[in-house]
Amino acid sequence: MAIGDWSSRMRGAEPCRPGTEKNKGVAVSPSPARRPSFREVFAVPEFRTLWVSYVLSAVGDRLALVALTLLVYDRSRSPFLAAVTFASGLVPYLVGGMFLSGLADRLPRRSVMVGCDLLRLLLVGAMLIPAVPLAAMIGLLYAVTLLQPPFDAARSASVREALEGERYPLAMAIMGSTTRVVLVAGSAAGGLVVALFSARPALAADAATFAVSALLIRFGVPARKAAASGEDQPSPLGQLTEGIRLVFGDPALRTLVGLGWLAAFYEVPEGIAAPYAGRLGGGAVAVGLLIAASQLGAAISTPLFTKKIGPLTRLTWMGPMAILACAILAVTVLRPNLVASMGIFALSNSFAMYQLAANTAFVERIPNEKRGQAFGLATAGLIVGQGIAFALAGAAAEVVPPSTVVALSGGIGAVIAGGLAIRWRGMSPAVGRHTARHLGREASLTGQTPIHAARSN
């Protein structure tokens, strides 16, 4: 739900509370005002700071991950150790997402981000010490990843605090597209840096990005009090329990999280890109093209979807788009060539733009003081789901053609998406000429002033 950045109030309405009838509605624009532009989003200094900080850290992380994976393999010649290194985003992110993301609620969010950056600077710096054992380097990398969830949770919640209304979905579209570009460019740059120099310059660059990011956030993000203030704050375990009850105890939030986790199915092509390309007679270039095509589809479609389509329509199209994102992959059962496969993967990920609508709807239902924990749970589930899906797909590709594995993954995902779409359809209001009537009827039942939908759906 790359995953994922979220809030508890609808503009012009009372706070949404999980488990209530009112919470079954959706967040819609309170007036037919002109939609904001991407320029207006970047005009907000706090968002610019958070975005630049994110770009620096994300590029540095990809450089370091690729460099360390290659370094471990070069020293050990062990595919297993290399895989363990590259999988550093799985177990640590799960633990950090569950137990550390709540720090973004209990402590000031700026302090959490700066603190995580400085700790990661020290950890990556330790990797630069000559003759560090491989086991220690892998352990340090896992520790660095462990600090990523609280930083992500604090950053996502801060973006929502900095941007109101329709500027927030635009900001998330920018972040999502940036993530996809960084995944491709960062991996390629990591391999190039290691090939031209060595792994240590890449690690040094990663350490430098954490230092710059900490400075940017410290002086570019305003100080705010902790969102979950008060003396009756629960313990970390109690906060985790409350977060699980909040996210999975409410039918709407449960459905939205499920829609977000569908990425584990339609991103399987990236997880088995190497064997897929190998079956087509391609090498490293073909692997890169397949991954790039997948990322490019969503990187282009998501900003357009956010800018051109109104909020209510985005919510209504969310279910069908989730189905298409998965179902399109079933075409690979015909064993298409490289160019056709690139087109299929790009089209599939183009429909993944529904994730932005799911993210925004999730945000509007989460109280500010619980955002960090909720973000952490949703993101940790997605990361782990992707890891499991990739592992199962890789194992299956040992037995059947990779194209068949992709088709099966897409088919299973489409069936699950269909069930989620049906559930969501019963929760979200209709779009079009009946929308006002629906909202007016809901207002008469709840005794609230109706929320006016945006003029453009």
From TrEMBL:
Region (Disordered): 1-33
Entry GO CC: plasma membrane
CDD domains named among the record's database cross-references: MFS_MefA_like
Biased segments, Basic and acidic residues type: 11-24
Keywords: Cell membrane, Membrane, Transmembrane, Transmembrane helix
Membrane topology listed for this record: Multi-pass membrane protein
Principal localisation: membrane
InterPro entries (UniProt xref): Bacilysin_exporter_BacE_put, MFS, MFS_trans_sf
Cell compartments where the protein resides: Cell membrane
Source organism superkingdom: Bacteria
This protein's name: MFS transporter
